[in-house]
Each structure stands twice: as structure tokens, then as C-alpha cells.
Fold this sequence. Notes:
It is built from twelve helices and six strands. The protein has helices at about 10-20, 30-45, 65, 80, 85-95, 105-120, 155-165, 170-175, 190-200, 220-230, 235-245, 265-275; strands at about 1-5, 50-55, 100, 125-130, 145, 150-155.
Amino acid sequence: MKLHLVDGTYELFRAFFGAPSAAGPDGQEVGATRGLMRSMAQLLSEPDVTHVGIAFDTVIESFRNQLFDGYKTGAGLDERLFSQFPLAEEATEAMGMCVFRMVDFEADDAMASAAAQWGEQVEQVVLCSPDKDLAQCVTGEHVVCLDRMRKKWLNEAGVHDKFGVAPASIPDYLALVGDSADGIPGIPKWGAKSTATLLAHYGHLDAIPDHDTEWAVKVRGAKGLAENLAAQRENAELYRTLATLRRDVPLGVELDDLRWTGPASGLDAFRERIGLRRLTLPEPKNG
């Protein structure tokens, strides 16, 4: 038995930019919601998908915005997309999926928490998202990431190949290199190659000595890197906190609640509401 965990916010964004615009009977923009539903129908049709949960950023902001003013917000988000956030949650719930609505936390936190909570009860956890934050959750072949659009899998060896560090070092990596998608600026001059070289040896940023003369590995521009890190240790530790996914989010359900048993009774009414004439769903599977 596998557990599939979906980043619903990412899927909605992907549908918004990939699916055609469409208006429902009441004139509301619903194109991304329709695209999301078709994508989830495809996922549910996969032969190994029996237990599935989908997480949404019900609001863009989270507890991380209280820690750092520069963290990502919903500023500048297209209203045609933002208006479909609640619709997307309703849509997937009508399809019978277990929906995690995140307010204080983020969708990635819900996925990380679900993987931590139920990982030992399943053969494999599949994190359906290309978000590099989730690479920190990868464990061997047991917890893996899947970019559904590109059909690319990321296991633990893949994390090493892609980032040059172990999954446990991903928050440190993002703290030093930065993550523009989340508003994490990183430490000046710390690029991917030098960061990977140092973290591959030291594991975590707080184990990296302040002075480059004490470094056990050689990197280009070591003196400047060391000076910048020494001057911004506090910032680096904050950025690592921002990049570290929470694994203790209260989800309020049990693993069996994630078993997909078919659509909810309100699916037809919801489809009519958004003008979606056809949606092909599979029969629920055993397992």
C-alpha cells in the first residue's frame, strides 16, 4: 500500500497557467479548478493510488511570516487565481479526497507531517510535488518525491545527485543559497556548488567553522564566503528555520481516512456549479 500526498496549491497554480481560462454559469473564473479536477482524476486512476491526501495553502501567509517580514505573501497574485483557492478545496473534497486546509502552516508542512505520521504504516510515501523543500523528507526509496508533470522521481540518491547534499541538509542548503520562491534571500556569495561542497562535508551550517583556514574542504572564494557567513550566522539560522518543514502539524484524521472510496454525494452539484460537464473517475480500489 502506498500513500500519495499532493501539493494542491502547486497543482492549482499549474492548472491556472496550463489550462484554458473558463467561466462558470455565474461568471466566476473556474478554469484552474476544472484543470485541477481533471488532474486529480488522472491521479486517482493510477493503479497504485488507494490512499491519497491533498494539502492547500488556504491562505498564502503562515507562521513563517511572523518570523521574517520578507517571507512570501500573496501580494501581486492574480485575482482570477486567488479567487479559486476555496473552489479548489471544495472541488477535491467533492471528489472524495481527504483535504488538508492549512492556515497557520503551509501545504508542504501538512505533507511532511503526514509522511512522518503514517510513513511506517505504508510501503511507500509519494510526495506529489516538484518543490525542492520536500526533498528534506526523502528517505531511501521509502519516501520519494514525484514531479507529475515531468514524470520525474526523486529518491535519496536523486537528492544527492541534484543538490549535492543529503536530504537532512536541504534546509541548510536553502538557507545559504536562498529560495526566491519563498522569499528566502540566502547568504551573499553562497552559490550552489560551494554550498554543496561544504554541506556534503559538514552536514549543517552551524558545523561550518567561521574561518576558512579551518575548513576541511576547498572552495573558490572561501575567504569571502567565510566572512559573510560569520557576519550573518543569525540570519542563516533564521533562514534554515524558514526552510525547515514542520512534521508535527495536527491533521485530525487517521490513515484509513485517506483511503479513496469514491466521490462525495455533492460532486454532481459542484460540477454543475462550475459548468464541468464531464469528469471520469475510476472505481475505488482495494488495498
